[in-house]
């Protein structure tokens, strides 16, 4: 039943039926659109069609829905073996993660890729214990690349954001090459240690079950350092030019880690969901200009909406310091709905 | 210089510097992010890096900016050889189109793919005449797949919308196979004749140079039959469920062309720019349900934001009736920033 808004209450306009059914209905559509995947609608898990791949380390991730294409859109050869979908902005439960772990275990163990949010971390830990009781070897990597805040509403320590996309790609390539569980885990930890991110919002997102914007952001202000759930950021500032915004995002990243030298960086400009590609490319030009002035060489790039926050307008910047191994793994073929290259 | 909004005037929040520089600055970012392309910043043309391809029919398109990834994001092997970028929602000029035509002519002639908007049609016609004076053989196909309205603010006859994406892919594959200009043109015309689209908006877009929403849409209403520039649609209706919206879009399409039988259809659910992928997948499930009930078999699908209207929230549905040749050409490899498969 569609809920008709009360008069005078700002309506939430979304392409949904009942907010409570959004995630399962979207997964059903995804299953219809991607017959190459196997989607367990009961458990809300997106699997590679051929999972488990015998002898290969299995990679799973998962988290609250609303960040698409992350994570379900990154399931496929060269990236994840499975992804667990929680309700919007809500961690999946340990039973889902256990079921996904079992489903991708090809005998070489399973890596859990976890964004650093309290619920995700706790539930993945519990799932890892349950899997151990099943004699499945599990390792975990927790991403915590967001330099904006130390702790947040939903996190002890830094939040896991944009680096998660790059890590899923690079660790997926390492697993594809036949690396063992400790080898894949080492690569994954190296990616997280070498990456930093910072985001900003022009507008709030609206969680369907809440029916109203998560936060109020005046028409003439933007929020810098925002998380992917609309968690408060570092500060609100007057609306600024793309050039100024690029500086606000890149400077704290460069202050946190030395990105000069070596094999250059992968520069990732990510849209939060409602930002046109035209603006993201423009932002990428600004980010590139700052990096050039700072002596940081851009070796690879990614521009688009890959880790989103529903209908939030805004963007994030992620830099990943490359070495020749990470570069080669980034360039390896990948074939998922959200990222596809060289296959 | 960033324009600070006057107090009390609703601010336009976008990731831009000066609205007048948006298109060239975005093209500069695109050039930096995609070294495999060659971008002529002076003429605002995105070329394949290896254009012209000797002996292959060249394919060009173009139109107003603001619909990204269309058209520049569809330049590359298996799709377009070049795309001309106009200002936001404004046709490129004949000189750009002529320059693009010259740049992709590999001796086998050039096909112009034109969306049916008065300015685009007129300017591409003029460019074709200029190219003929250069002894370049040019053919044209005009897309007009939008069943919403007969004429519109910017069109005599139906508007060219979603089918353009599918046509660029399929005609690109035909050119790759070595078909001659009349062969590629015949395929392109067949795609346009076999496809129909209809769109809707939850919100207006905001053109940067205008600084305010193109149209007012009350919080409790949606606009059905909208074009990709915010042109008025068929009617405004109260905000409705995704299921009801899917019916409003699919029924006029099915009433306009018989999509039953044959080799099934390619069903394309497109986001207008600000609509989360989660909602698009949900819409795809609804569209699939209606098609199944109507005896239309979905053979292939495409779900995502491919022909957008800046930051408009909403979606469109395109159906393309397939035969075995169109199906094979759709499945052929393609390698562009916006669509990549099997390469």
Strand content of chain A: 15-25%
According to CATH, what is the class of the largest domain in chain A? Alpha Beta
Which structural class best describes the helix and strand composition of chain A? alpha/beta
Cα distance spanning the termini of chain A: 43 Å
Biggest interface reads: A-B, 68 and 68 residues
For the record, the CATH architecture of the largest domain in chain A stands as 3-Layer(aba) Sandwich
Lateral strand order in the biggest sheet of chain A: 1-2-4-3-5-6
CATH topology of the largest domain in chain A: Rossmann fold
What kind of assembly state do the chains in view correspond to?
homodimer
Helix residue percentage of chain A:
25-40%
Write out the CATH superfamily name of the largest domain in chain A.
Dihydroxyacetone kinase, domain 1
Rounded to the nearest angstrom, the radius of gyration of chain A is 19 Å
Number of domains of chain A: 2
Low-confidence stretches of chain A: 1-10
